[in-house]
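Field: sequence (string)
Field: structure_tokens (string)

Example rows 1 and 2, in order.
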Amino acid sequence: MRHYLAPLMIGLLVLAGCSSNPNAIEPNELPDFDATYNVDRLWRSGAGDGIDETDMALRPAVTSQQVFAADVHGQVFGFERENGKRQWRQKTEDRISGGLYAGYGQVLYGTREGQAVALSADDGSELWRTQVSSEILAPPTSDGAIVVVQTLDGHLLGLNAEDGKQVWNYETPVPNLTLLGMAQPVIVGGRVYAGFASGKVACVDLASGAPVWERRIAEPVGRSELDRLVDVDSSLIVENGGVFTATFQGKIGVLDWENGRPYWSKDISTHQVLSSDMDKLFVADADGLVRGVEQRSGTFLWQQDKLYGRRLTGTAVQNGLVVVGDFEGWLHWLDPETGKLVARYHHDRDGFAAGPVVYDDVLYALSADGKLAAYRIEADD
């Protein structure tokens, strides 16, 4: 039997065992700073119950015309991107996991029961449903012809985008104990890049599923299964000839996208989404430190520690600024050159269902209780 833990649950277990430890993490208070940017909320809409006190991550998905969001009770919503007006709601009753993908006229998601589902982006009607080998804990992805889904038990599957029938199946061994989540596979140049709970990254041919290469980012270390967790749960960034990723309790590093050859790696632990801009990576680690990292060398350019312990979301980039959310529902914007805090906005007191998503310099945030909003940010003149 396979088991999984939410990263937050792991943190609670650690703290519970160290209640008398003076070094146990306590969240910093909100830091004072001089804001140099103004945040403007464009609209706010309700998207069901969000994650409803679970540890699931349900990232919204954005296209040029629409925003899509879901809750853990199986409701999926389509909104107009311009004004947030709800276009449709589909009550699927699925236990949706990992978040949504939207593109090519479809909204895709996976379920805890191991089903891949495609809905129409126009009205939310179901297009197809396919049973796979186990839970799907990452958002699917697609190039319009092949839908790629990844399962908890180490399968990476290519499905026909028209009817959901299986085209290929790539499999790699994974440990029995994993985190509650997975990195979304990435399609670039006719290949699929995916990270696994074993700490490995694989590259396969999109058309056939044939393996191109497989490489380990981090080695499991320790006696217990908990100590040996090295899941690749943060996002994969495939650009500039490299595959950039990070593991929980492990490494951040880059592999050559052609052959998997490692260029560099640094000790850092994260299960959150990475972002990039102008040859820099931005990562929020498991302790709440935010870092800027040079892509070419892996050099840490800066570190922001004022958000320490605030259980940060993954990072995103908006108008050239780095943005993260925290457990109290605050959004924080940082200067990409120095890490200095430049703006802050309170989205919702219940925290976030997942990290923020940026599309055309507009940021979309979904709270843990289903509040969806869009934001612009501009320099304070």
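Row 2 begins here:
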Amino acid sequence: MVQSRCMEGQSNHTSVIMFILLGISNERDLQLILFPIFLGTYMVTLISNLTLITLIRTDSHLHTPMYFFLSVLSLVDVFYSTSISPRMLSDFFRDLKTISPIACATQYFFAAWMGQAECCLLAAMAYDRYVAIGNPLQYSTIMAPELCQMMAVGSLGIGLICGLAETIPSFSLYYCGPNIIQHFFCNVPEIVTLSCSSPFISQMTLFVVATLVGFGSLLIILLSYGYIAASILKISSLKGSLKAFNTCASHLAVVTLFYGTALAVYGHPSSGHSDKQDTILSVFYVIIIPMLNPLIYSLRNKEIKEAFKRGIKKAAL
């Protein structure tokens, strides 16, 4: 969908007024199967994350830095999933999946904001685990509530700035067609390739943000786990070593899923994967992981299970 537009000194060009998303699939039968699956996934994401947030906020036994960061991570996952899933679900019932540039920019901004914030939060949580294992006697002093709050606010602030830095130059480009986005959501790497003006600044911004925030956070996580491994090796008893490792297992699983999928989605040449492979990886990255995070932290965590039981008992009284 385009409209005529004259540019000074040039012939008439067309300006895109609507983008068209390809979606996950155009096959009607497959859409009927996928819709309830993704709707169920989104509902589980909301319920599990909001339940975890409520437990952590209301149960005094969970008022520790680790669970504070986990509650913020769950909040980020709720907004991250909500920035994409509702629109994707509604597109299952549309033959032409059009979206305005403003709506597209808004969707990408919130997804980028939450995605970058999650990178920073995972790094903060890795540092928290390092202090807990490497410096247990000074843990409560180092990880004071004020520092935890600053780290959480800083993560959200960095995500906000990066989201704006990626969105504004990308959607300030001139789009004159084609207007088909090879994805089920507004993903800037695919969108800027449609631009009729030079996307150099936008692409450089994406690269700088990915390097500083994405790989910077990953470096902090790797360094933290390097020190954690060194601290665990110094523990003489096997039981103590296993207990120390168990406190990191859930976070390590979440980090592996998040960064492993992110690198698979964004860390390959444009010709490295087919569009179908990219779609499948993106579905896992932006839809499945926000659902898995609270489950990974809850299923093996005795304190959360006990808090859940206490919450049920209070509700029954």
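free_text_note (row 2): The first strand starts at residue 2 and ends at 5.
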